[in-house]
Amino acid sequence: SVYQQLSGLPNVTFDFIIVGGGTSGSVLANRLTEISSFEVLLIEAGPRSIFSVNFYGLIYFIASNDGVINSIVPGFAFNLANTPFDWNFTTTPQAGLNGRVIGLQRGFILGGSSSVNGMVYTRGSSSDFDRFAQVTGEPGWSWSRLLPYIYKNEKWVAPVDNHNTAGQFDPRFHGFNGFIKTSLPGILNPAVDSRVLQAANELNGDFEFNVDMNSGSPLGTGWLQSTSGGGTRSSAATSYLAPQFQARPNLHILLNTRVTRILKTKGSNGLTLRTVELTSGFDITSPRALVTAKKEVILSCGTVGTPHILLHSGIGDKKDLAAINIPSVLDLPSVGKNFTDQPLFFPAFELNIPNDIDPWANLSTDPTLQADSFALWNANRTGPLVNLNRADHIVWGRLPNSSPIFQKFDDPSSGTNSAHWEIILAGSPSVISGVGTIVSPNSRGFLKLKNNNPFDSPLINPAYFESEFDLFTGRETIKAFRRFVSAPAWKDVLIGPTGDIANATTDALLDDFIRNTALSAEHPVGTASMSKRDANWGVVNPDLLLKRASGLRIADASIMPFVPCAHTQASVYIIAERAADIIKAAWQ
Ligand SMILES: Cc1cc2nc3c(=O)[nH]c(=O)nc-3n(C[C@H](O)[C@H](O)[C@H](O)COP(=O)(O)OP(=O)(O)OC[C@H]3O[C@@H](n4cnc5c(N)ncnc54)[C@H](O)[C@@H]3O)c2cc1C
Known about the structure:
By secondary structure, this protein is α/β, with parallel strands linked by helices. About 55% of the residues are buried. About 25% of the residues lie in helices and about 20% in strands. The protein is built from 13 helices and 28 strands. β17, α9 and β18 (about 330) form a beta-alpha-beta unit. The strands form 8 sheets. Strands 1, 2, 3, 13, 14, 15, 16 and 28 form an 8-stranded mixed β-sheet that branches. Strands 10, 19, 20, 21, 22, 23, 26 and 27 form an 8-stranded antiparallel β-sheet that branches. Bound molecules: flavin-adenine dinucleotide. Flavin-adenine dinucleotide (FAD) binds next to α1, β14, α8 and α13. Its EC number is 1.1.99.29. Its main location: secreted.
């Protein structure tokens, strides 16, 4: 059942209480309720705004993720930032961004960030996961042991335009019977696709064609895969919490309810944290209620939400908490530390390809084309709105071993099959733009509390470009993009760099471009990292139980000690699928 308000909840005790109905929480809710004797409560803070406005300006009622058109239509996903479906977090002023404050989007809706993300489906490299296994001492986190969970999660489907996909992916590396639909682009980009592939072929080396970037070896140029199918977004909510699962009698989904703290459970031995404080209200004066798990509480509030709740619960650095009058319950200084995100920026090159090669060339500026594209999507889920944008390829690259930066820094990537940078290639007849991203950053930031009010946003400092390594990699990403568009394939159509990089002719000017324009890739991890059982750092053990306590487990992006060289949803799904098996094994 789904409850819109706390007052509707039938019980105050459940076997499991999952806090956060996002990407990982939705997976866990589904998997744990496969066992009919487990009573499970899933608590989600969003969407709170109960009325919204659709494409035609009509006001409609929102319950959960249903009917949120910007979340359903892939091409509308960019409209979700700074809306009622966003937590609307911002960073602290970033020294590495010339003092700029930037937004950090997080989904405030059932399905969490999987309901608002860019749908790019990338897993990272095998060595990313092998490094998880190595730092935790738990072989279960290695690539080969996680492959079954990758396949359990994924349901590969044909692209919605039914184009011939031979040579565009390798079926050996995909799951066909899982939950999250993945597919190749459902409308191709004739203006640039053939030239991208030709350039990859001409240049080889860094840019060599890679038939499937999700094989565990992502490097090179490959076709973009996304978490969509049939022309619509596939999120944790639309799949793992589809109506037939919401109807399970042992699953209780509570929306519009914020968890403020996890409390010591009365009458229990030692530090047992199975009691959850929650409220339907909006501010510090709102009345709170308590619910208790008989078996476990699982925190799945993500890289920002999870440490936020832990710190308010008195779990974190004792000295920091004392300074804001929060009594220490468990002195775990690693909570909120190791904040790791990937910054991105947008270099672009002007092209001179005749417009008539692409009927949608002026989609971003022409209101008639915009109305036509939505009509097409509405009629039969086709047209340019079936993709986030006109990007069909990604290039993943590494700095060469001889790069001078390695004289000063150890390699932050997980191994030689891992990328340092990524360029998502999006194009129209008049411009090819690249989303340049530092995917194996060396900078580490932190999340702290401003005060003891759980309704206030935390201080989020990702420390973008504070490591010189990341700025160096940023410049090399732009230079790699320049090399890419200098291939013979572009010779007759390339005009030159455009926008902010047009005049960035020196390294110092490239640095300015990066610092003045970079944004978040929205892939933060690491604030409740897992570590070896006996490590003197970390927040959870390799089985994801909170260190030095019982009753509380964490399963979401926050537990990753390093960011994989990838967009992070695939790794979150993998973590949640494995966490479900760990929990079932502990209690069955
Ligand atoms: C704009 C954007 C674009 C992205 N693009 C991509 C992409 O293209 N490809 C990709 O792979 N990854 C992408 N990501 C990253 C990816 O979506 C996330 O890494 C992943 O979804 C995180 O999963 P999670 O379970 O850790 O957190 P979330 O999915 O964010 O779930 C956390 C949930 O907890 C809830 N919550 C938080 N605090 C509380 C509280 N106190 N009480 C109750 N509930 C609470 C939240 O509302 C949310 O529903 C993107 C993310 C964003 C935001």
